[in-house]
Amino acid sequence: MSKRSRVLGLLTALIAVAAGLVLPTTTAAALPAWPNLVKGQYSPIVTTAQYLLRHHGHDISADADFGGGTESAAKAFQSANGLGSDGQIGPNTWSKLIVTVQRGSNSEAVKALQVELNRYGHGLTVDGDFGGNTDAAVRSFQSSHSLDANGQVGPLTWQTLIGDFPGYPAGYSLPLPRGALARTEYDDVDHTYPAIDLPVNQVAAYAIVSGTASRISESKCGLGVNIDVGNVRYTYCHFESIAISNGPVSAGQRIGTTGASGNAQGPHLHFHIKVNGGYRCPQKYLISLYDGGVPPAPANLPTTGCFN
Ligand SMILES: [Zn+2]
Question: How far is the CA of 191 from the centre of ligand 1 (A)?
Fold first, then answer.
């Protein structure tokens, strides 16, 4: 072998090594499942779907509340796209609703994107304008979720954003309509043990997570609901009426109407979280939901510092 061909061979080997470094070597992470949204749910993910429906020309309000108007719009969108028009927003409907957006885009779809990014703790203004802050939030989300951090929001990024959170198989929801209470109410200290009393009367109560519901009817709690997810129990008390049977519930599903049943001094929703039977402070969990972020795992919630 001549010196020249040895050098060429070495160069070729170096190029091959370099090429190996830049070839795609990432293994695609499994995408989370699309959530299935149905009439009656109340969740930030409903707001996302509403903005996407608006993007496709359906004049509905984006208020997180999956009511009759949203269902009609979903049915119309489904018929127009060759889908079975059941009015539920599941995998096939999501796939048609999403549109690729990137820096410079300005649309209702960008508002949907901003709502989603805010669920992950990015405090973006929901204005539909895909500028520098939204671009930075997208790239940060992409790089922390093993996605190509190119700032372009296509099908993989959308599904990763909207898909189920680990540990929350169908997302989560505030326990009350967002407009029912100010943020500060979710931070209140008003018990002698870890729990919270939310001052509302005769408003809808929603399942905070998906799990197994059981109805409560006894003298202290009054009418209420337990939702069990593994060793975690979420408890609601003092309902005026219960809207579910025992069994599976989905996050955002209406489970009752608040009131003053049981041992309640005036109407309010009593709410607490227990892990393995021990009370945890629910405030950080609720504030996080109010802010559209990912709530802490209940096992990581404090057991002190949230009561008198
Ligand atoms: Zn209470």
Answer: 7
Q: How far is the CA of 46 from the centre of ligand 1 (A)?
A: 29
* Domain of 248, in residue numbers: 178-300
Q: Are strands 232-242 and 269-275 parallel, antiparallel or unpaired?
A: antiparallel
Q: pLDDT tens across 15-67, in order?
A: 444 444 444 444 455 788 898 888 877 677 888 999 999 999 999 999 878 88
Is residue 15 assigned to a domain? no
Ligand 1 centre to CA of 235 (Å) is 10
- Tokens at 96, concatenated: 């048609």
Same domain, 146 and 197: no
Q: What are phi and psi of 155, to 5 degrees?
A: -55, -45
pTM: 0.56
Q: Which of 162, 192, 215 is the last residue of a domain?
A: 162
User: Residue 80 sits in a domain of what CATH number?
Assistant: 1.10.101.10
Ligand 1 midpoint to CA 306 (Å): 13
288-305 tens-digit pLDDT? 888 766 688 898 899 999
Closest by alpha carbon to 242, among 199, 206, 197?
Answer: 206
